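2.7 Reproducibility. Because tokenized structures are sensitive to small changes in the input, we list the exact sequence used for ANTAR domain-containing protein, including any N-terminal residues retained from the expression construct. No trimming or masking was applied before prediction.
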Amino acid sequence: MVVLSTGLVIQNADGAYARATLRDREELIGRHVFDALPDNPDDPEGDGDGGLLGIVHHVEDGTDVRLDLERVRRAYARSDAPGAQVAESQHRFARYLAAADEARSHLERLEGEVTQLRRALAWRAVIDQAIGIVQAERRCAPDDAFQVLVALSQKTDTKLREVAAALVRLAASGDGNPIVPGPF
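Resulting structure tokens (single pass, no recycling of outputs):
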């Protein structure tokens, strides 16, 4: 986390922020936020925009760096310092906030996809077990066994994963009766 003055001067920074900027904490304090984050430390004309966006990418990559955007917005809204430097800072900061909001939305979409993929992967093992059960009982190919499960799912208006889980539970009970009902 970083604490900025109303003029966007760094007042305090934690270790995570210092690591993200590749600078020492002492080196950050007292610097304008855009001066502290040049695109390339060896480029004297770096304007800091790429450095700030790099922090957003650290957040997207899942590291522990977080910016309290709402606190920064409130502090910046109170800024009444005059001059061209403030206007330029406002312009840069507005671009940064837009990019940060876009990155946050992108991150939320990616987190949703990951959650959905994890659920699908967890159910995939159960579905594969059910395919094996149908194969053994019907003496058919894996694709044919899968089609039996799909047909059973459609006929009973039950999700495929639930049909697969029920077949696996029946097979585990081991009562010796046929597991897969009817011809599909």
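Residues 47-66 have pLDDT under 50 and may be disordered.
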